[in-house]
Design goal:
CATH class: Mainly Alpha
CATH topology: Growth Hormone, Chain: A
CATH superfamily: MFS general substrate transporter like domains
Main location: membrane
Largest sheet: none
Pfam families: MFS_1
Distance between the termini: 42 Å
Keywords: Membrane, Transmembrane, Transmembrane helix, Transport
Strand content: under 5%
Domain Major facilitator superfamily (MFS) profile: 16-420
Shape: globular
GO molecular function: transmembrane transporter activity
Helix content: over 70%
Radius of gyration: 21 Å
Order of helices and strands: HHHHHHHHHHHHHHHHHHH
Number of strands: 0
Length: 423
């Protein structure tokens, strides 16, 4: 007879993950589609690399400002309604991109999109920690986060196709891109309240015995968890938050910068729009499968530190190597390695964060980690645009990412050593 634990985890995965994965897929398409849109929008509206980097960076500034309050509001109003609210508002903000007419309106629209989307990712991580025991969390988070690389696989082809609608009904191709890629978020947001539940005791698809097992398993973790009162001002003063934020900053900056800039890196080799789209899909497709494998491996071995540090080291090394190659094939090979390693660490990292903070600090703590990391992402993205514009080299612009991921690797090893030391 099948073990009750496996039955419960399978039921939770099948009931909760599909809509959350689809939601994050749509969120990342709406966030990163600017990378393709700017191939035509930039020259038409006079948005150069520095202006593009600055405007794109404002997305993360807004993300930081609204992220922690959003997670605390989710605790008060419930995940079901709050996640729906986030989806609907970011869909509306995405539609506003259609009206962009220059660098200033571009920056304003990106800020509004960041403010609207803020809270979705840490809210879902918090939500998953309230349903899945920690022994399953790396693979569950990895499954959820396949949305990120998968969004670039789907979004590359979709964006190239929508840009080809240039001139239809008097709209530019990039306007069609923002219009049609924003609508799914609104539709999903309207469906979420009917699909998700706030707590395990609210669902009928778990039997009495299954609900009892899950409730006890989660309660046992809360009973042994570290943490304080979960207040934002106390959590942010915790040095663990800043250590974890630095670790994740390199990963976050790498995935977001490449989502936005990789199409331009590839197209700089003189390729067509469709050739760019096809090659842009490859690194993200490889990362999609590998991150699930790595998350499963991390749960089996129980090594959160090693499963986070090793991919950061590989990411850093591959980014440094882009300085010594100028061929398309070699560059693509390095980008594949970078993104496979970078996405692999995300599942183990968020499991490590949940375990380090404990259940009582999770709401504000997870949001704070993501917010601080994205503040760094904003700075790196802006710096990338300035370095690329002044040097004319994408490889030089990638150097801050190489240094940041190397620092994250060192901080992960320090955190592992400090966790082993007695209090």
């Amino acid at each position: 007879m099948e073990d009750i634990e496996h039955i419960v985890i399978r039921k939770l995965s099948l009931r909760l993950l599909p809509v959350l994965i689809l939601g994050y897929l749509v969120a990342f398409i709406d966030r990163s589609n600017i990378g393709f849109a700017t191939l035509t929008m930039g020259p038409q509206l006079g948005i150069g690399p520095a202006a593009f980097g600055f405007g794109s960076g404002l997305f993360f500034v807004a993300y930081v400002l609204f992220e922690v309050p959003s997670n605390l509001a989710q605790e008060r109003f419930g995940a079901r309604l709050w996640i729906a609210r986030i989806m609907i508002t970011w869909g509306l903000a995405g539609l506003a991109m259609v009206a962009v007419c220059g660098p200033i309106s571009f920056s304003l629209a990106r800020f509004l999109l960041g403010a609207a989307e803020a809270g979705f990712f840490p809210g879902v991580i918090l939500y998953l920690s309230q349903w899945f025991p920690s022994t399953h969390r790396s693979r569950i988070v990895a499954l959820f986060m396949i949305s990120i690389p998968l969004s670039n696989v789907v979004g590359s082809a979709l964006s190239a196709m929508l840009l080809a609608l240039d001139g239809v009904w008097g709209l530019k191709g990039w306007q069609w891109l923002f219009l049609l890629e924003s609508l799914p978020a609104i539709v999903l947001g309207l469906l979420v309240p009917f699909v998700l539940a706030d707590r395990p005791d609210q669902v009928r698809w778990l039997t009495e015995a299954e609900r009892e097992w899950l409730t006890k398993a989660l309660a046992a973790e809360r009973g042994t968890a570290q943490g304080g009162h979960g207040r934002a001002w106390k959590v942010i003063a915790d040095r663990r938050i800043w250590a974890l934020a630095l670790i994740y900053c390199g990963s976050s900056a790498t995935s977001n910068v490449l989502s936005l800039w990789q199409p331009q890196i590839i197209k700089s080799f003189g390729l067509t729009l469709w050739e760019t789209a096809l090659l842009n899909m490859l690194p993200f497709a490889a990362a999609t499968g590998f991150m699930v494998f790595w998350g499963y491996r991390a749960d089996i071995r129980g090594s959160r530190i090693g499963a986070t540090a090793a991919p950061l080291l590989v990411t850093s090394g591959a980014l440094f190597l882009t300085l010594v190659t100028h061929a398309l094939v070699a560059t693509m090979a390095l980008l594949v390695v970078v993104l496979m390693a970078n996405y692999a660490l995300k599942g183990p990292f968020w499991a490590l964060s949940s375990e380090t903070l404990g259940a009582r600090d999770a709401a504000a703590g997870l949001a704070a980690i993501n917010a601080i990391a994205h503040l760094g992402t904003s700075g790196v993205n802006t710096l990338f645009g300035v370095l690329q514009e002044r040097s004319g080299s994408f490889a030089i612009a990638l150097l801050p990412l190489a240094l940041l991921t190397l620092a994250g690797c060192g901080m992960t090893l320090w955190l592992g050593k400090s966790r082993r030391q007695p209090a």
